[in-house]
Amino acid sequence: MTPSDPAGERRGRKRGETTVGIIARLAGVSAPTVSKVLNGRPGVALDTRRRVEAILQEQGYRRPDAIGPAPVLEVVFHALESHLAIEIMRGVEGVARGQSLAVGFTEMRGREEPGRSWLEQVLSRRPVGVIAVYSEPAATEQARLAASSIPLVTLDPTGEPLHDVPSVGAANWSGGVAATRHLLDLGHRRIAMVGGPTGFLAARARLDGFRAAMDAAGVPVDPRLVRDGRFFFEDGLRHGRDLLALDAPPTAVFCADDLLAFGVYEAARAAGRRVPEDLSVVGFDDLEFARWSGPALTTVRQPLAEMGAAAGEMVLALAAGITPTPHRVELATTLVIRDSTARLQDRRNS
Amino acid sequence: MTPSDPAGERRGRKRGETTVGIIARLAGVSAPTVSKVLNGRPGVALDTRRRVEAILQEQGYRRPDAIGPAPVLEVVFHALESHLAIEIMRGVEGVARGQSLAVGFTEMRGREEPGRSWLEQVLSRRPVGVIAVYSEPAATEQARLAASSIPLVTLDPTGEPLHDVPSVGAANWSGGVAATRHLLDLGHRRIAMVGGPTGFLAARARLDGFRAAMDAAGVPVDPRLVRDGRFFFEDGLRHGRDLLALDAPPTAVFCADDLLAFGVYEAARAAGRRVPEDLSVVGFDDLEFARWSGPALTTVRQPLAEMGAAAGEMVLALAAGITPTPHRVELATTLVIRDSTARLQDRRNS
């Protein structure tokens, strides 16, 4: 330990010189070098740093708990939802900067990583809090975060909306109603729904909203017009092709996700059908790209930045020892009408 | 100070009890509470935390330098480039996770913030390093980072490619050549260029690549077909409309940015011209959306994730006291041929 590294010295000593000494010997470096690596300080060559890190991992070395949390709110995404990430990050950042906290971006690529899992990494950094986006950590993971006093909030989790972890969602059902009512108001009756994964409650809520609006208008739902897929462009393209090839194709499609809507656009383009003249399309999310698609997409806006901000406020409250009330927040969705929906045309004129 | 808060105690004492005492008195709280706020520790109500933070700011309180850096690499974006952010963040994260560092996301909205500037925030957190994307911090900002031993790398800065800060860019000129040669190979001669901001060297390099390919093929550049704009959808739309309204419109357009290309798509759609049958379009960047646009966009791919990784490696090397060699890295761009470009048709057949 060098006298100029009092924090490192204290941390090293807390764990006992022996452990750091063993690591140093295994890595063939000095104890101060191990200390620098442990504390993320400069002055260690990249190769050396990596060798020491690898040995620390092998030996299962843990930093003493007395070290304070890093000034970071960590946001953890699944790979698939990353096209929603920037807006969410912006929202969290707006809250975090008020407390001079950095916002950390982590993308989970499968539950476990080669080497350390995302959870091991988070525990080693000890952020002020964690926001899990579209991914509810497993109960064992939640317990480990709780044991380290790292609060957790989930943003629109795929699981049950009522659970132990505080969470932020959007009014998915209401959004489904608004989208469908808009198409009904334009005179459409043969309305298709390209939904999301059936196991995903947010997708189920959008579908239920669609059915509710159709029922309220007294319009029967043709089961051939109701499809489900993953939230992928390719699934929108496939269902769009199928739907347009039907003897009685739909005149309008409500998609549970903007990427599905862009897939339907491409199916229409390939089939020589015009949007909105021949086919009205409504999406869900309002991705940044929705207004740049041709034509600009009518869609149900999820307030992603506001949802990120709400999750940020919740996790900071938890970090301050306050239990957020309410435990679950659902923010309103709004229908954004652009150029992809039009009044049903008399087919003979089109 | 509580006995369970040795780090806070040490930090507080370093600065002198008086200062923390004054802050505590002004905020109407105890000194341990101020210490908790300073060290980002839980157990302080949100309102109290904010009041203390505000007074710390007013009083210009600075944390002592002896505190080690936070385990974070911070990536700073301008608001305008955020559609490129996720890929860059992924690349940086791939490098950072090898060292168990979080990747921080900061979006600069103008140079100065109400309250603390981005720089003040970064200095208060003391990250392991900073990557500035498309934004070269001012000399005074660079000096303050250097004074705090926080290394800085810029990713494709708008300024001179050769400067003091190590930097990562893409082969913009070569990308311009490849895009233009592809259109020439398809038989196009009336090729328009919708370029980026003239003061932006990356945009200038793409334009120069266009001119070089045209010259090499012995095809004169019609000055009416060369436009410049900001990297906005709206500028692509405007120039696209103008170009298509010419007596002799171009048969192909090379856009210096994918957003410009999407604007040209919309101009073509509105004018009843088909892409690629009536107009071939090439973009630059290869945004995630490029493959979902209708038709899928032929574009010059900037390897954003690889650029992020290279910037991450550079800044970690600097943090370890190693001067990166070379000082400037330009990664290769590649032409991705999709469905928006086609062989020049005999106009009488189209």
Notable features of this structure?
homodimer, 350 residues, 434 Repressor (Amino-terminal Domain), Rossmann fold, 6-stranded parallel sheet, 6-stranded mixed sheet, 12 strands, elongated, disordered N terminus, transcription regulation (chains A, B), transcription (chains A, B), LacI/GalR-like_sensor (chains A, B)
Which structural category do the helix and sheet elements of chain A fall into?
Answer: alpha/beta
- Stated plainly, the CATH topology of the largest domain in chain A is called Rossmann fold
**Would you state the CATH class of the largest domain in chain A?**
Alpha Beta
Q: Tell me the radius of gyration of chain A.
A: 25 Å
| β-sheet strand percentage of chain A | 15-25%
CATH architecture of the largest domain in chain A: 3-Layer(aba) Sandwich
Mean pLDDT of chain A: 84
What general form of chain A does the structure show?
Answer: elongated
Number of strands of chain A: 12
Query: H/E series of chain A, N to C?
Result: HHHHEHEHEHEEHEHEHEHEEHEE
